[in-house]
Each structure stands twice: as C-alpha cells, then as structure tokens.
Design a protein that fits this description.
It contains nine helices and nine strands. The protein has a single domain, classed as Phosphatidylinositol (PI) phosphodiesterase (TIM Barrel), CATH 3.20.20. It is an alpha/beta fold.
C-alpha cells in the first residue's frame, strides 16, 4: 500500500515560510523533512510553476491570473513578501527547478496537480510529461522494483487531470484527492488505477479509514496541525499526512 514517507511538509515549509517556493522547501529541509507536498499549475505559455491560487492577490500581489501570465513574468513576481519581509523577492519557482532541487537534496515529492479552471486535462498531461522526462531513470528502475519510492506521487482534486496524467505517464503513481470521501470512491480509484486516497482528516471516520485500507489503498490526510489529532488518525490506520506545523510535528513523528 503506502511505501512513501509518513509525515510530509505541506507546501514546502508549512507556516514557517512562503508556500510553494524554494525558500519553503529549504525551510522544510532545515527541519529534517525529506518529503514535501506542493501545487503545480500552468502559466500562459504552458510551463508548470508552483502556485496554489489561480488568481493573484494572496501569495502574489496584484490583479491577474496564472493562466494569463507567462512563466518569465511569474518568475519576476514576489511570492515571498506576503509571508514575511525576510522572504521579499522570493520568486514563483518553475516546476522543473523544484524537481531538480528535490532530486539533488533527496526530497520525495507529492505533486498536487492544481489546474486553473478549464485546463484540467492539459495541466495533467504537461506536468506528467515533464516529470516522466526528468525521472526517466528512476521510472525504469521502479518498473523492476515496485517498492521503490524515489518516483514522485501525483495527486489532484481533478479526476480529469489525473486521467490525463495516467495517459501521459502511467508509471508515475497517483492519489485521488477528495474533501469528503464519495460513495463511489472504489470505482473512481479503480478508474484512475490509483495507489491511494487523499482526503481531509476532518471528514474521515475510523470506519471509513478501515474500509479504504481493507481495499488495499494507501490513505493520506491533509492538513494535520496538532500532535493530538495526528496520533488519533494514525491509530485509525491512516498511512501518512501533511502538516503546516513542521515546528510541532517532525518528520519522525509517526515512529514516536
């Protein structure tokens, strides 16, 4: 089932650094995290970049949208000052640069495919193709050794994005993201040939956790920020979770 790290830094450095930036990932690494979750979206020229919101205004100041802005323009924008003046000038990173950094730093990636409205299939395809190219050696090794966790895991709330990713890079595993687990979760996971279900811990129950694991799927939760809740869901059989509070919940928390 779940062969990946159990505790994952949410969007890089959680609340300690600007989300979806290299500064955030470096912050997570400084806290001992060799597993990270982040969001990937397409720019106007169809280059994958790290970004959660399709519209500017929260982590990048100003008006406009990611899907109408080129990657070069995005790279010149400040994605750090909103968190703290210490991060002023931190750029919107290109996905390829982040992949290279994580590979060189031995950081496993949960890549959330986050399409802007109307770009679901295209985002899934492009992200999968770029990932497949950069991890071609690891993918070839994984075909021979199925318990290898060096290859990233794709996740998305978009069924269409994951289906496109499956078509473009079937060797890269997939996890289906849902807020509330739907009644037909089994059918959806089978259609995606997914390895895991990712869900909001607030909407999970012990019974449902048991059913998901009994079917042979990994179970991942977002976003768990207190040690008490983390211990509770781990006792239910949850395999892994991401956290914003990397200062409270360390990478070895599940083993304590």
């Amino acid at each position: 089932m779940w062969i990946y790290p159990k505790i994952i830094a949410h969007r890089g450095g959680g609340t300690l650094a600007p989300e979806n930036t290299l500064a955030g990932i470096r912050c997570g690494l400084a806290h001992g995290f060799h597993a990270v979750e982040f969001d990937v979206m397409l720019s106007a020229d169809r280059i994958p970049v790290l970004m959660h919101d399709p519209q500017f205004g929260r982590t990048v100041r100003g008006a406009g949208s990611v899907s109408e802005t080129t990657a070069r323009q995005l790279a010149a924008m400040d994605a750090g000052a909103w968190r703290d003046a210490r991060f002023a000038g931190e750029p919107v990173p290109m996905y390829e640069d982040v992949m290279n950094f994580c590979k060189s730093s031995n950081i496993w990636m949960n890549v959330e495919i986050k399409p802007a409205p109307g770009f679901d299939a295209e985002t899934g395809r492009v992200v999968a193709e770029r990932t497949r190219h950069l991890f071609s050696g690891e993918i070839a090794a994984r075909v021979r050794r199925i318990d290898d966790a060096t290859v990233p895991l794709f996740s998305s709330f978009s069924f269409d994005a994951l289906m496109a990713a499956r078509a473009a890079a079937p060797e890269i595993p997939r996890g289906y993201l849902v807020d509330v687990v739907p009644a037909d979760w089994r059918e959806q996971l089978r259609a995606l040939d997914a390895v895991a279900l990712h869900t909001n811990h607030k909407n999970l129950t012990p019974r449902l956790a048991g059913e998901i694991r009994q079917e042979g799927y990994g179970l991942f939760c977002y976003t768990v920020n207190t040690p008490e809740r983390a211990r509770e869901i781990l006792q239910w059989g949850v395999d892994a979770f991401c956290t914003d509070r990397i200062d409270l919940i360390g990478p070895d928390f599940a083993g304590t």
